[in-house]
Amino acid sequence: MTRPQSPFEAAPPTAPDEALARALSLAADEAAPRASADLQARILADFDLRARAAAPRRFAFKGLGRLIPAGALAALTAAGFLAGVATAEPAEEAAFDAEAAIAEAFAADAVEWTEI
Amino acid sequence: MVDETDTDEALVARAGRGDRLAASALVVRHSDRVMAASWRLLGDRASAEDAAQETFLRLWTSAARWRPQGAKFETWLIRVATNVCLDRLRRRGREAPADAAPELADRAPTAEARLMAEDRRRVVLDALGRLPERQRAAIELCHYQELSQAEAAEALSISVEALESLLARARRALRDALTARRDELRDGDQHDASAIAF
Questions:
Q1: Under 8 Å CB-to-CB from B158, ≥6 apart: which residues?
Q2: Which one of B2, B28, B56 would you mutate to disrupt binding with A, by most A Cβ within 10 Å of its Cβ?
């Protein structure tokens, strides 16, 4: 086998790119460091952090779901109050007002039991 | 559960929904290539690891809304890695003298460094590392990552004509640099003399 006197004189002058590609191949992927297990762990830790950062938003909606029964109860109470106001008879209101007036008078010591 | 037949695009969509197994599969599939590309662009392992980590962080950030848009996922990821590295090189350029050469030739010896081709590899990497950053990126994308010229041009935000010009200048500079160091290359001549020939 004949070897060229100089590697720089061996390549056909018309194929510099091919020669360059072969030269670069010497420094190709086998020379490059691979991603270490530590690096992969750090990359996945970043993923976990982002996943956790996104998670509270979902939990917030879950918490909102837990409030639904309490909200429903409050709504029913309000509806009951409004229904009571709407259906109250004038006589009942008068009796309520009288009782309230008597209670206020007692509270202010304005009347004695004997006056009732 | 991740199947080997799952496409990258499907895994990205699952990762975007918080699927850790899908994210892990993407890391296993692509981290070596991202690491290699970053290392060749930045010249040292520590910087390359940081860049690879940042590249995947950008993936996690955009996974939920990532759409193929015509490009393969792997091409997109290498494009992100290239941009991360170019940003770092620009920052480094602002902090260091403009003509400071990257550290490709000064990296600590690896297992491969003890192999007989190490000296020659070092010379080639050194020459590569001394190229201006955009010429190096053009070589990285077109030669190592085997992107088409259109894809590489898009990654570098330049026209195909500008990329061709970059490549031509990079190849000329490499040829000149390697020719100037022919004596060092000849030392390893007994192993494979025809490997580097211009």
A1: B166
A2: B56
